């Protein structure tokens, strides 16, 4: 199989499929129909499922089921007070038995057994945006100075380029993706003093396979802007967020910053993760900082326990 990072996909096809992925994620609780998703894509129902499989390297039904199960698995770990039946219904399964069969078929363990095991081993399975691929020293994490504020934010319109694959692959492509975004925004006079460069992480790396992880490199744009070409556009939900403010010596310390948000701040905060993906905003160009610091904000949607 050709690796995701080197596959060449027509940008118009990729853009249309990204619209479908965004729609599915936004309405993950639904039971989707082929006709409904084909309409979102702009392809005919007759051809859509084949186009989707060609771009994503998995079937439409397989993708939807995987995404629902991954999100449900994350909730089994992070929201222990919510029943398995309620979690199944929240993610669009008809009933708990359908969810139980799909979960065991996929992960080789029952949902109840997984929840029990995860409770017993939370010390080893702390939620973190990064896994072994980006190892770090815990002492390094504890040396980082940071502060977190809880704040309601407004929704944000963004244009984006999407990467599917490992975070190591993303690191190699991040700069050219960023430059493409800025070049388009500058050409179309979309840049202003409030423009933010953001990376949205759609998947939990402790659950989603390395090669399937989706990351959107984004620029905020004025609401109502129409974006053309290879770029996608979406809206990041407003609501209550924990915003961690970090000043890092280098980009590699981002791993430690995320660990502090999930492993230190969140368990002691009185909050639990909310719906929606996490993201980070890059606030400066480290080359122009007197101490070459990387200033970033980490955004984690939250709700009360």
* Count of helix runs: 10
Shape designation: globular
**Amino- and carboxy-terminal Cα gap:** 44 Å
Q: Report helical residue fraction.
A: 40-55%
Q: Could you give the order of the helices and strands? A: HHHHHHHHEEHEEEEHEEE
Give the CATH superfamily of the largest domain.
Regulatory factor, effector binding domain
Counting helices, strands and paired strands, the structural category is: alpha+beta
Assign the CATH topology of the largest domain. Multidrug-efflux Transporter 1 Regulator Bmrr, Chain A
How many individual β-strands?
A: 9
Outline the biggest β-sheet: 9 strands, antiparallel
Question: Which CATH-level-2 architecture of the largest domain?
Answer: Alpha-Beta Barrel
What does this structure look like?
By secondary structure, the protein is α+β, with helices and mostly antiparallel strands. The protein has ten helices and nine strands.
Short description:
This protein is an alpha+beta fold and 305 residues long. The chain is built from ten helices and nine strands. The chain folds into two domains: 4-120, Homeodomain-like (Arc Repressor Mutant, subunit A, Orthogonal Bundle); 146-304, Multidrug-efflux Transporter 1 Regulator Bmrr, Chain A, CATH 3.20.80.
List its traits.
Arc Repressor Mutant, subunit A, alpha+beta, 305 residues, 10 helices
Helix and strand arrangement:
Blueprint lengths: L10 H16 L7 H8 L3 H12 L3 H19 L5 H7 L5 H12 L3 H10 L17 H6 L2 E8 L2 E9 L2 H21 L9 E5 L12 E7 L11 E5 L2 E10 L5 H12 L5 E3 L4 E5 L11 E11 L1
Antiparallel strand pairs: 1-6, 2-4, 2-5, 3-4, 3-8, 6-9, 7-9, 8-9
